[in-house]
Amino acid sequence: MSAAIPALVIAVDGPAASGKGTLARRLSAHYGLPYLDTGLLYRMVARAMLDAGHDIRDAAAAGHIVSRFDQGAFDEDTLRGREIGEAASVVAAMPAVRSGLVERQRRFAAQADGAVLDGRDIGTVICPDAPAKLFVTATPEVRAARRQKELAGRGESATFDGILADIRRRDARDSGRSDAPLKAAEDAVILDTSALTIEEALAAAIAIVERRRAAAQGLLTER
Ligand code: CDP
Question: Which residues line ligand 1 at a C-beta cut-off of 6 Å?
């Protein structure tokens, strides 16, 4: 009789436009695991707030919306716009919004074989017991260049300096909030993708996951 293979939960955290989404998607394809982009949940709350005509800083309205929004009601492409990213980071600092989204994320992570989730607090708050945690980062300039390319691909033009300012502001807001700030979990491996291609970053990420998986199965003793 073979031993049961433990569920593989891969937590991928990191700042805006660090490449964590691309990496998480590729990891999910590589391991055949379901993938959740948790940033989209915060973007949905922001979109629902704006659609309902609320001020984006209205925490009471956001707390009300987070308990009843329908995940299927949004067009993903619209959610990825620049303004929604900014609005999402405002609602993401509200404790009622964060707590209102915890269960959806944990339920997703609890699937039989495991799952890949990317965000800001997956390794620290949502899945603190995940066997594999990556903290994906890159310099602000590299991230701004990547985001500019991504936005151009969507037909949204913006200057490099404007995007860099957005990224710095978002980093400060995400890292400075008191509830679940953006930071690497103590047992996360930091992966700086500034000088890596997607393929190189993927290979490095797989190597990290494999080491952690072996350690979790007791084949290696690594922390
Ligand atoms: O792709 P990008 O990194 O620009 O944004 P995202 O991952 O879609 O997240 C948008 C915003 O949601 C972030 O700036 C965070 O403020 C917030 N967020 C969060 O607080 N926690 C998460 N797990 C995911 C996103």
Answer: 16-17, 21, 38-39, 42-43, 85, 88-89, 92, 119-121, 170, 174
